[in-house]
UniProtKB/TrEMBL annotation:
Organism name: Anaeromyxobacter diazotrophicus
Cross-referenced Pfam families: AAA_lid_14 (PF25601), HTH_8 (PF02954), Response_reg (PF00072), Sigma54_activat (PF00158)
Stretches assigned to the Response regulatory domain: 4-118
Sigma-54 factor interaction domain segment(s): 140-369
The protein, known as: Acetoacetate metabolism regulatory protein AtoC
Species lineage: Bacteria, Pseudomonadati, Myxococcota, Myxococcia, Myxococcales
């Protein structure tokens, strides 16, 4: 795909110069003489990158930046500022510009900014494409036959209003599957309410789920409808259902059988219309055998059972998941990283992933956060058989630096990649930030500002 840039300037001479430089690099350039024309062109066909002058008659560069930043998805905007107008550049960054460079500029300087912006835009686009494809396939990334069968089941039972029990080890994607079911359902416009049955004491869990009357127990100053009330008309995901206490199990059975909820301390029951999805990493049959889970409740929940295989049983999914998480985190951190190469994939394939997809997700998040810009440092990847990444022991200086680098990455992420904003959040000047980004190879050289 040829990268495209829209160049906006009222000065035909400068437009010509920009076109010459950029098209010499194989970038397709279109021109607009002012903000209004730029918006019209953008309307006709969106560009990933807009390079605009600030001072123009009519709709100026600042207003154009603001309007483009409000688009979904927003293009990257790089502004051209006159020498000595630092304040304007800051204004433009606040309005949503991605970066700026000053006139007069060196060709290399301009190209570095444009390339960086195009690459970032490409990653975001790639990510949006991936997520778009996900939405279609029910937000699941997979390549294995086992997951393909599961995705088919999700698509089939999603729209039917049945209770679904989702089983699988921790981190295999049970919640993700629940979301896919909900999205495929006729209740997708109503909320998906989540509750972790293991998170609260039995009494609180019961009150939280089914609601309580005023004064039902100490601290119950007001009556509450409970999550079944909140989810009325929608979907309720009961995570860790195997940890639900016996009294709550009995109440849940009644909701599933009769569609009726009785709040704690209340005599009368209310009717609710809630689709229940339940997830567990436990073997509920074994729980029943031990007397810890009601058999009649298991039958009610188990109308449709979806089993998520552990990641080690579906290695075909690893490369695709790796690509997905690399795109996700590099876009989120505003850094560039190459696609996973054969060596990285071999390492990922050799690890047993006891924490399943969640562990893989975290491993790739650290990899993107800690690798030098534009690279993937394979030493950060978990070694085969081992749990922890094979990072060498670090001295105090390296540890402090790793910490500082992490803070910078976080600040940049929070600021959506906008450096002026990140500098402000960190309480340092843009110059200091610039130096630090360079030190940690986070911000490429040739940054137009200082
Ligand atoms: N097939 C998949 N495609 C994309 N992302 C996935 C997939 N499976 C899992 N994930 C991601 O992995 C992480 C763990 O998944 P999730 O929380 O759904 O697991 P879980 O089985 O519910 O875990 P737990 O039992 O610990 O609650 C999430 O961030 C989720 O988005």
């Amino acid at each position: 795909m040829t990268p495209r840039v829209l160049v906006v300037d009222d000065d035909p001479g400068l437009r010509y110069t920009l076109r010459e430089i950029l098209s010499g690099e194989g970038i397709e350039v279109e021109e607009a003489a002012d903000g209004a024309e730029a918006l019209a062109r953008f309307e006709a066909s969106p560009f990933p990158l807009v390079v605009t002058d600030l001072r123009m008659p009519g709709l100026d560069g600042l207003e154009l930046t603001r309007r483009l930043a409000a688009r979904s998805p927003p293009p990257r905007v790089v502004v051209v500022t006159a020498h000595g107008s630092e304040r304007q550049a800051v204004e433009a960054m606040k309005a949503g510009a991605w970066d700026y460079f000053r006139k007069p500029f060196e060709n290399d300087e301009l190209l570095a900014v444009v390339r960086r912006a195009l690459e970032a835009a490409h990653l975001v686009e790639e990510n949006a494409r991936l997520t778009g494809a996900l939405a279609l396939s029910g937000s699941l990334v997979f390549a294995s036959p086992a997951m393909a069968r599961l995705a088919e089941l999700v698509a089939r039972v999603g729209p039917r209003d049945v209770t679904v029990l989702i089983e699988g080890e921790s981190g295999t994607g049970k919640e993700r599957v629940a979301e896919a079911l909900w999205r495929a359902s006729r209740r997708a416009d109503r909320p998906l309410v989540r509750f972790n049955c293991a998170a609260l004491s039995p009494e609180l869990a019961e009150a939280e789920l089914f609601g309580h009357a005023r004064g039902a127990f100490t601290g119950a100053v007001r009556a509450r409808a409970g999550l079944f009330g909140e989810a009325d008309g929608g979907t309720l995901l009961l995570d860790e259902i195997g940890d639900l206490a016996p009294a709550a199990q009995a109440k849940l059975l009644r909701v599933l059988q009769d569609g009726e909820v009785r709040a704690v301390g209340e005599d009368r029951a209310r009717r609710v219309d809630v689709r229940v999805l339940a997830a567990t990493h436990r073997d509920l049959r074994a729980q029943v055998a031990r007397g810890a889970f009601r058999e009649d409740l298991l039958y009610r929940l188990d109308v449709v059972k979806l089993h998520l295989p552990p990641l080690r049983e579906r290695p075909e999914d690893i490369p695709l998941l790796a690509r997905h998480f690399l795109a996700l985190f590099s876009a989120r951190f505003g850094v560039q990283c190459p696609p996973p190469g054969p060596e990285l994939l071999a390492r990922l394939a050799a690890h047993p992933w006891p924490g399943n997809v969640r562990e893989l997700e975290h491993a790739l998040e650290s990899l993107v956060a800690l690798s030098p810009e534009g690279e993937l440092d394979l030493a950060l990847v978990p070694a085969a058989g081992g749990g922890a990444p094979a990072a060498p022991p670090l001295g105090l200086k390296q540890r402090v630096e790793a910490y500082e680098r992490g803070l910078l990455v976080d600040a940049l992420r929070e600021a959506g990649g906008r450096r002026a904003e990140a500098a402000r959040a960190l309480g340092i000047s843009r110059v200091t930030l610039h130096d630090k980004l360079r030190k940690y190879a986070l911000g490429p050289d040739g940054d137009g500002g200082g």
